[in-house]
Design goal:
Oligomer: single chain
Largest sheet: 6 strands, parallel
Order of helices and strands: EEHEHEEHEHEHEHHHHH
Number of strands: 8
Strand order of the largest sheet: 5-4-3-6-7-8
Strand content: 5-15%
Length: 279
């Protein structure tokens, strides 16, 4: 949650500590990483039958909401189609935003929208191929499904790198994507149980909390209301003038010190010349 009012005292966001271990925050910053998680199930008989009937398992492929997979170049789309067609033992569930998928293999099912949390929680899901979105990362960790991350933009690259470094999946560069690379990564992540075990460790860490994220977010909102905006949590940086904020005072001081140093050196050189030549 981003705020525009500098007078408010507390900020909630839905980043998770385990995936953002390299970031630091002010005292007015509260992490509520799982407030978007839902406990409901949406009935979809066709989708349910597709998932239930996958004897060897299902590969779930989604690039999230900000990236439309139907806008991939024909070359990239064909790479996925060719790779999925060579995995007939698995069913593939693909979030595809158009009515039809040209060249759709028989083991692939497409849908414009999918109840992602419910899909990931299905026991037959063996692998999640995704773009490294924050919400999707939290959902896949809670579902304990190993991943193949193909980051597209923004913070997705950092998130996928973190997941790969933890051993919960692998990183694939979208620009260098080849059918053979995708096939090798799919088989590696599905059949190497280490990825599943590492994802389970992440899941346990993510769920190990003293309270519910939604309850904690509500408590902090009520706290700010009770304390009239909780201005005691405000960072002093909000009170800086524009000159201080742009560090113009610091820059001016550095320039002055440099100028003074050069001037002193110049005067010393002149003094030495006078003494040496007696002028």
């Amino acid at each position: 949650m981003y705020h525009d009012n500098y007078d408010e005292g507390c900020e909630n966001d839905n980043n998770d500590h385990d995936k953002d271990y390299d970031k630091r925050h002010n005292n007015d910053h509260n992490k509520d990483s799982k407030v978007h998680d839902n406990d409901y199930e949406e009935e979809n008989t066709d989708l349910q039958d597709f998932l239930d009937g996958a004897l060897e398992g299902v590969i779930y492929f989604s690039l999230g909401t900000n990236v439309r997979s139907d806008r991939m170049t024909e070359e990239k789309r064909q790479i996925f189609l060719d790779a999925f067609s060579e995995l007939p033992q698995f069913r593939v569930l693909w979030k595809w935003e158009s009515d039809e998928l040209p060249g759709q293999p028989s083991n692939v099912k497409v849908a414009k929208w999918l109840p992602q949390q419910d899909v990931l929680s299905h026991p037959n899901i063996k692998l999640f191929i995704y773009q490294g979105g924050l919400q999707s990362t939290e959902e896949v960790i809670r579902a304990c499904v190993p991943i193949i991350g193909i980051p597209i933009f923004a913070d997705q690259n950092r998130i996928v790198i973190n997941m790969a470094e933890f051993g919960a999946g692998v990183y694939v560069d979208f620009n260098d994507l080849k059918k053979e690379t995708l096939l090798n990564k799919v088989n590696e992540v599905i059949y190497n149980k280490t990825y599943k075990e590492n994802m389970k460790k992440l899941m346990i860490r993510l769920k190990d909390e003293p309270d519910n994220s939604l309850s904690r977010a509500a408590w902090w909102i009520e706290y700010v209301i009770r304390h009239k905006g909780a201005r005691h949590f405000r960072t002093a940086a909000l009170d800086l003038t524009w000159i201080q904020n742009l560090l113009l005072d610091v820059i001016a001081c550095i320039i002055f010190v440099l100028f003074l140093s050069f001037w002193i050196v110049y005067r010393v050189i002149l003094l030495i010349r006078r003494i040496h030549y007696g002028k």
